[in-house]
Design brief:
271 residues; alpha/beta; Rossmann fold; eight-stranded mixed sheet; three-stranded antiparallel sheet; 11 strands; globular
């Protein structure tokens, strides 16, 4: 997918070390391959740091969430121009491209995330897996996506902020929105092992404004996670930032833990 300039909205041309538009606005391309299009003076940078990115890469590489990836790939159908909004370190993005490639579909994907650290991992993954030519990676806000109107066949939005007006803007007519949310008892046994009073999630499983819900797929199954992967799992969740050290320590003594993963995949169509 073609990126647009965050200053003037003209198309950006990818060069070896930068992206540049016809008006001369230029954005450096990091050595790993991503470009930062976030207007720093208008938006405070945040997002996952390098430690969270490493934890996510370690855990996802072990394949625990493969059923969700398979469901996303099946729902994507014949999509060619794909935007992964909140793409993280690229495991889902590259896995989706691999699945579509296996079906003879030459898709292109642009991954958007607010974290430069995590996009460094995503761009490196795409290069290592042979998808560098089919991918772009850009630091940008979900509130102002660097895409032209009606330029996208499919948006993938997994466990990430959703901005329906902006999603509707960039999707083509009848474009597809694939959203994943954690259901009520997702990782319940993990939370019960850490917290004295664990709480259920409160998922929103309705179609966003401007979209219709075609299908809600529920994906629930148990996983048994050994010690090292257990630490990575907890480190990649939002819980790591708001849990006391003494509670986190409750996991370090465990050799393994069996817990339930439970996802809702919302397959939505632009009205």
């Amino acid at each position: 997918m073609e990126l647009i300039c965050p200053v003037c909205s003209r198309s950006l041309t990818a060069e070896l070390h930068r992206y540049v538009c016809a008006k001369g606005h230029s954005f450096d391309r990091a050595k790993s391959g991503y470009v930062n299009l976030l207007q720093k003076q208008k938006h405070r940078q945040r997002g996952d740091d390098a430690d969270m990115a490493k934890a996510r890469r370690s855990f996802l590489n072990a394949g625990y969430y493969q059923p969700l990836l398979d469901a996303v790939a099946a729902a994507a159908g014949q999509s060619v121009q794909i935007a992964d909004i909140g793409c993280g370190e690229g495991w889902y993005s590259c896995g989706l491209l691999k699945s579509l490639q296996g079906q003879g579909i030459a898709a292109e994907l642009t991954g958007i995330d607010i974290s430069p650290e995590i996009l460094r991992f995503a761009a490196a993954r795409a290069s290592a897996e042979g998808f560098a030519a089919q991918t772009n990676w850009a630091v940008a806000s979900v509130n102002r996506l660097p895409f032209a109107d009606a330029s996208c066949d499919c948006i993938v939005n997994l466990f990430a902020p959703c901005e329906p007006a902006e999603f509707s803007r960039i999707l083509k007519k009848n474009g597809l929105l694939l959203r994943a949310v954690p259901l009520e008892r997702h990782l319940w046994e993990l939370k019960a092992a850490v917290y004295d009073q664990p709480y259920e999630n409160r998922p929103v499983c309705n179609a966003q404004e401007g979209f219709r819900l075609e299908q809600l797929r529920t994906i629930t199954y148990p996983i048994t996670v050994p010690h090292d992967d257990l630490q990575a799992l907890f480190a990649m969740t939002p819980y790591i930032r708001k849990t006391a050290p003494e509670d986190i320590a409750k996991l370090t003594s465990r050799d393994s833990l069996t817990t339930t993963v439970s996802f809702g995949l919302l397959i939505c169509r632009k009205k």
